[in-house]
């Protein structure tokens, strides 16, 4: 990834990111207006930007883009990213920062969660969304959210 930026006329700040991927190159250009040159973050906090980020992260999970960890549950293997799991869950962060077996092997065995629940949990970790919520799903997700200390999931699952 490379980034270039410059201030143009009328204090217009232009930021260009270039991401290279194995099947081509994607170029994104983000422009934002900055009166005092001290804080450029506020114009980028748009709903469209958040939605695009959410969709990109969902695709990373669904299409297993450059995964580096496997979560095994029942007879299924879910591929994921240590970095995303770590920023969303302090339990995973600790697991991957220490010299634990899971960090060495690249495999996390999750024995106490159903595969469908783990998939819903991971979809939430990547997107912030849980689809098809019912009481049974909510109660199972609350247990997983508690186990991995994903506070945002606990707040979004309805409590009965």
TrEMBL record:
One Pfam family assigned to this protein is BTB
Q: Which organism is it from?
A: Latrodectus hesperus (Western black widow spider)
Give all residue intervals belonging to the BTB domain: 67-134
Query: Which residues are listed as membrane-spanning?
Result: none
Q: What is this protein called?
A: Putative roadkill
Give the taxonomic lineage as stored in the record.
Eukaryota, Metazoa, Ecdysozoa, Arthropoda, Chelicerata
Instruction: List the signal peptide residues.
Output: none
Which InterPro entries is this protein grouped with? BTB/POZ_dom, SKP1/BTB/POZ_sf
């Amino acid at each position: 990834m490379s980034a270039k930026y410059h201030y143009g006329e009328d204090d217009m700040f232009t930021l260009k990111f270039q991401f290279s991927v194995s099947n081509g190159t994607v170029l994104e250009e983000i422009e934002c207006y900055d009166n005092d040159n001290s804080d450029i973050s506020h114009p980028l906090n748009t709903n469209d930007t958040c939605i695009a980020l959410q969709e990109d992260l969902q695709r990373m999970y669904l299409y297993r883009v450059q995964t580096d960890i496997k979560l095994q549950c029942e007879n299924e293997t879910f591929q994921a990213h240590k970095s995303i799991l770590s920023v969303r869950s302090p339990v995973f962060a600790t697991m991957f920062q220490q010299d634990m077996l899971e960090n060495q092997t690249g495999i996390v065995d999750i024995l106490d969660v159903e595969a469908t629940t783990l998939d819903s949990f991971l979809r939430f970790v990547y997107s912030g969304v849980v689809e098809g919520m019912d009481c049974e799903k909510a109660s199972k997700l609350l247990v997983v959210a508690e186990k991995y200390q994903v506070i945002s999931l606990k707040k979004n699952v309805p409590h009965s």
